Amino acid sequence: MIRKTWVIVGLWLIASGTSCAHRPPLDGFEGTWGSSELAYEIQFHGPIGLAAHARAAGLQDGDPVFRLVSLDGRGFTARQLFADGGWRTVTGERKHDGKLYCSDGVKNWVMERR
User: 35: Cβ–Cβ under 8 A, 6 or more apart, which residues?
Assistant: First the structure.
């Protein structure tokens, strides 16, 4: 519980610190995205993604699970929470089929708009 609180506080501080900075345009990323490989769906609110329909132990709807770090055209870099409780760097690309093709360097998955 304490760790989760610190994660939420940390993400809030990061988001607050960047709110005055130039934010990347999020065209095409807004809304809810999901993948059968994830234990939740992600609802984007600006650069922060919150868990929706969470199915992982210890994870509740509304918990922060994704933080967009950079956006370059269709490509992006983010930090994402995984089922093991670890935050990892994720890279991906929004392709012409509208899906997000993601990788953490070990595993690949595809997220679709819900």
Answer: 102, 109, 110, 111, 112
